Amino acid sequence: MSESVVSGRVRAGVAALLAGGLVVAGLSAWRVDASGGGEDSTYVPVTPCRLFDTRSGPDNVGSRSTPVGAGVAGAHVQQVTGVNGDCEVPVGAVGVSLNVTVVNGSAQSNLRLYPEGVEPPLASNLNWIAGQAPTPNKVDVALSGDGRVVVQNFKGTVDVIADVVGYSTRASLDDIEARLAALEQAAPDAGRDDSGSNGNGVDNSALERRLADLEAAHSGLEEAYADLELAYADLELASSDLAERQQELSVGIGLANADITRLRGRTATLEQERPFVESAMSSSGFQLPDIGPSFIIREGVVPDADGLVTIDWHATVQSEHDGGQVRCGLFSEETPPSQISLVSVGAAHHTADDADRITTLSASRTFRVFEDETDVWAVYCDQIGGSQGDTWIWGRGMTVTFIADR
Q1: Residue 324 φ then ψ, to 5°
Q2: Cα dihedral sign for 279, 285, 291, 292?
Q3: Which end of the chain lies in a sparser environment, N or C, as judged by fewer CB atoms within 10 Å?
């Protein structure tokens, strides 16, 4: 509600307003820039409380103690208004602000929250890959008429934790507008004379001072709200920085593990009759072109003796073309394929449909190598059907294990 509206209405019924005992402190939890009626609502921050936690055991909060499954069939419908979990949200709430965290995701997926009874949105609120560290995000979501939200997971299973940090309601502003309207009707403004009294000879100076105090308090509320918005922006920035640090830590741990594996393989080459291992990994996305086979990852070795190498590879494939097929295979980099056959040694394929657009392909192949000769192998992928942009290659890797001849 704007300052001019508050000021005008209070001036119109100031005597009745003060007599009615309207408490200014009651405005401290209301947004001063909102207005009653229509689609406007008032945001009310609360001390964070846990609405639900689907993890089993001592961590569990709420009625569900199993992970959220995939799709509409596996979705979780949560009652928000009333007493639920460790929270109590007024029945008149029309929206809720949550801090949502996903834990123990079994597959690369995303989470969407929306009011019960509407179509699921296309945009997601959280995204993760299998095995990722706990991932939080703030989510503002409208409630259904009976105060419910749907928590829908795209693929696999995942535990979900939700804490309430605030809610939105229309009741507070509707109530104060009704009270002001009643005061205007009960105490219409009377004419004033030059002495500062109204038509009945009553001195209005005390009322004017009270009115000035009320307007100053209203201005203080606007300043407090501006400070609150700045603090909230700082909190969102800190949350974003934390998520980036978690991602950097996850990548750093993966690189460290790869370095340890490589070091162990190098050490093993000094001990005869033992295998050594070389690995290559990548977690960045790669959009597959439609111009024939393209390599997605490669690795090579220079053996210190004649022997055999066994190469194991894997790649996560996502195809948006219904019926489109992705074929991947392992080849020597000296002889890249013109096409990839379904029966090629060390090859794998996937055909996408509405229920299964993301999968992990893997295979292995053995080659003979010779002392001090450089050998490089690469995994190539090709899409059959569809067009450029239909297929993405995500996490991928290959491991080369060498065993010397006895």
Answers
A1: -70, 145
A2: positive
A3: C
Say if CB 165 and CB 46 are below 8 A apart: yes
Interval 218-274: pLDDT, tens = 888 888 888 888 888 888 888 888 887 777 777 767 666 665 555 444 444 433 434
The whole-angstrom distance between residue 299's C-alpha and the CA centroid of its chain comes to 35
The set of residues, in sequence order, having a beta carbon less than 8 Å from that of 401 and lying 6+ positions away, is 275, 276, 277, 309, 310, 311, 312
Q: How far apart are CA 44 and CA 173, in angstroms?
A: 12
For residue 220, what are the CA distances in angstroms to 217, 282, 302? 5, 54, 74
- Report DSSP state, residue 131: T
- Alpha-carbon distance of 360 to 317, in angstroms, equals 6
**Chain position carrying tokens 């065993």:** 403
Helix, strand, coil percentages in the chain from 3-state DSSP, rounded to 5: 25, 40, 35
Helices 171-186 & 3-12 angle (0-180, nearest 10): 30
| Cα 406 to Cα 403: distance, rounded to the nearest angstrom | 9
pTM comes to: 0.39
SS3 (DSSP) at 239: helix
Q: Given phi > 0 = left and psi -120 to 50 = alpha, else beta, which region is 62? A: left
User: How far apart are alpha carbons 263 and 2 in whole angstroms?
Assistant: 68
Classify residue 59 by its DSSP letter.
G
Measured between alpha carbons, how far is 333 from 28 in angstroms, rounded to an integer? 69
